[in-house]
Amino acid sequence: MIIKESVKIEVKEIIEKFNKEKFASKDVFYFPQFKKNYLYLFINRFGDTDPMCRLKYNGKMTNWDFEIFKYSSETYTDDIFFMPGAEEVDGTIKGAMLAGLELYPV
């Protein structure tokens, strides 16, 4: 399911709000990239950009499939059962960002 422009706008608003609430520095922030039915979340840490996770859009803002970026293989995986932050994964964008920060702290 391709992500509609209206959903992209809502996603950007969620990320912007999260960035303002979570990060004291404007030099650390999440930002999105969209490709077909995927939302890729990247984090910028003082000018260094790293992939964090990707979410597959399933038609609802509360039902995204989550995959974390695994640096050891440079791939995305949904094998998150024992990873730090797994309890944050709840199908939402905010949950995905919280989980990413648990696994890869700033």
Identify the overall geometry.
Answer: globular
Sheet with most strands? 5 strands, antiparallel
Distance between the termini: 32 Å
How many individual domains? 1
State Rg. Answer: 13 Å
Strand order of the largest sheet: 1-2-3-4-5
User: What is the helix fraction of residues, given as a range?
Assistant: 25-40%
Mean pLDDT metric? 94
Number of helices: 2
| Low-pLDDT segments | none
Order of helices and strands: HEEEEEH
Q: Structural class, judged by helices and strands?
A: alpha+beta
How large is the share of residues in beta strands? 25-35%
Number of strands: 5
Description of the molecule:
The chain is of the alpha+beta class. The protein has one domain (5-103). Helices cover 27% and strands 32% of the residues. The longest helix is centred in the first third of the chain and has 18 residues, at 5-22. The protein starts with a helix and ends with a helix.
